Amino acid sequence: MPPPLPPAVKAFGVVSLLTDASSEMIYPLLPAFLTRTLGAGPAFLGLVEGAAEATASLVKVASGWLSDHAPRRKPFVVAGYSLSSAVRPLVALATAPWHVLVVRIADRVGKGVRGAPRDALLAAVTPEAMRGRAYGFHRAMDHAGAMIGPLIASAAMLFTRDLRVVFALAFVPAALAVAFLVLGVREEPVAKPTAAPLPRRGSEGGPGPMSDRPFRRYLLVLAVFTLGNSSDAFLLLRAQEAGVALVFLPILWTLHHFVKAGASTWGGALSDRFGRRNTILAGWTAYATTYGGFALARTGLEVSLLFGLYGLFSALTEGPERALVADLAPAERRGTAFGFYHAVTGGMLLPASLLTGGLWQRFGAAAALGAGAGLAAVAALGLRLVVPEPNRTGRGQPGQDSGLTEGGKAI
Predict the structure, then answer these.
(1) Per-residue confidence at 360, pLDDT binned at 50, 70, 90?
(2) Among residues of the chain, what percentage have pLDDT more than 90?
(3) Residue 171: how many CA atoms within 13 Å on its side-chain side?
(4) Residue 329: left if φ>0, alpha if ψ -120 to 50, beta else—which one?
(5) Most buried residue among 64, 208, 383, 402 by CB atoms closer than 10 A?
(6) Is there a contact between 15 and 181 (Cβ–Cβ < 8 Å)?
(7) Are 117 and 60 in contact (CB under 8 A)?
(8) Cβ–Cβ under 8 Å, residues 252 and 307
(9) pLDDT class for 300, splitting at 50, 70, 90?
(10) How many Cα atoms sit within 13 Å of 364 on the Cβ side?
(11) pLDDT of residue 400
(12) Is the dihedral of CA 63, 67, 72, 74 positive or negative?
């Protein structure tokens, strides 16, 4: 039997489960709300999702760097979750497409504030040998919440048939997540090493993570992949085009997250055993294959099966990608490193979503999704050629830079 995960990993897993339950009560219904209720087109859908994630990515760089300097990381995490929980249900009040854009940007700002500090905390409290499994478990709990949320949304839709009521109900699990975080996890202040300013562009051998050439190459390859990895909202739109009824979209989204929740811990553990790069390559290959399938699918049944297979891509990449960041970055700069990681994966979502939305509107779904498959294949080749597998020996032992506690016990 593998050793148990640290309590901190489990605690943040519960918080992510509740938060994603709230978010996913809204997300699978948002494309229909924008296009049918508010009259927006595919291009505006791409703008909403891309702008929201791009904003979050910029905030993550700042919050990660600030958390490296601060005696505590938890205040950033609490502030981020609180902001998202407060503004997300306001989608229920939207009467124009730009209202949704404003709410989504504010929601993602909250995600940006919490993301990098939380990921740095997880790395600090987890032994290197199980780091992939820890990040995989955290993502699995996130996806478990993403299963619960659409089921609640579907049940509410059967009773009310009112999207706005469903959106307003999303406040309940969001508030529970913040309460669990505040009351269930305590953090003691820890002395931080004096941190140097953000590294200058092109610096070599400086203290920041961007001075490390393998880390820069990794981010470059990630940027290429993310250019083809547009918002999943387009896949929900594809399902509508293929004939999937609106009431079944949350159930289809639940199937997708069921696969991710069931396989993410396993996918992260694979990277502990067979290497981060090899596991990510398998995931990106699965992505290219599945997106090619979405481009060619013609029926609701085909799209539904592809949604299940698409979950394997996330299971094989989300945990290993974060674990690779933790392997490449020194412990005292992990907040900054995760900020850059999220900046690339989130910031590239704006051009990715605009590209997909533009191609979709001009040439149709097959061209837009086929382009995503091609970019994923190019990125997989680049990962194989320019990013070495890190030597994961001795860096970042748990507990050296964190005073996180739960119930009076150091975690």
Answers:
(1) confident
(2) 21
(3) 10
(4) beta
(5) 64
(6) yes
(7) no
(8) yes
(9) confident
(10) 8
(11) 43
(12) positive
- Give the H or E element holding residue 186: strand 186-187
Query: Which helix (DSSP H) or strand (DSSP E) does residue 215 occupy?
Result: helix 213-227
Q: Look at the block and give the residue holding tokens 């009773």.
A: 159
197-200, Cβ contacts within 8 angstroms, sequence gap of 24 or more: 198/65, 198/336
> Global pTM?
0.69
Residue 332 CB: number of other CB atoms within 10 A? 18
- Strand 404-406: give its sheet, edge to edge: 186-187, 404-406, 409-410
Q: Is the pLDDT of residue 183 over 60?
A: yes
Q: How far apart are CA 45 and CA 51, in angstroms?
A: 10
For residue 401, pLDDT over 70 is answered with no
Task: Give exposure, 51-60, as e/b (b: 16+ Cβ within 10 Å).
Answer: bbbbbbbbbb
pLDDT value for 364: 86
**C-beta of residue 286 within 8 angstroms of C-beta of residue 312:** yes
* 244-258, 340-354, 388-402: which is most confident: 340-354
* Residue found by looking up tokens 């004939």 in the block: 243
Assigned token pair, 199: 């590294």
Closest C-alpha among 70, 81, 89, 143 to residue 109 = 81
The 3 state secondary structure assigned to 395-409 is CCCCCCCCCEEECCE
State the helix-helix crossing angle for 131-160 and 300-328, rounded to 10 degrees: 140
What pLDDT shows up at residue 187? Answer: 58
Six-digit token string for 230: 């547009």
Rounded Cα distance, 363 and 375, in Å: 17
| Per-residue pLDDT at 406 | 38
Beta strands 409-410; 186-187: pairing state: unpaired
Query: For 121-135, what is each residue's pLDDT tens digit?
Result: 888 778 888 888 888
- Confidence tier at 392 by pLDDT (50, 70, 90): low
Nearest to 46 by CA among 350, 289, 329: 350
Instruction: State both tokens at 261.
Output: 């929740």
Q: Could you tell me the domains of the chain?
A: 7-190+209-390+404-410 (1.20.1250.20)
Q: Provide the H-helix boundaries in 70-184.
A: 74-87, 97-124, 131-160, 163-169, 171-184
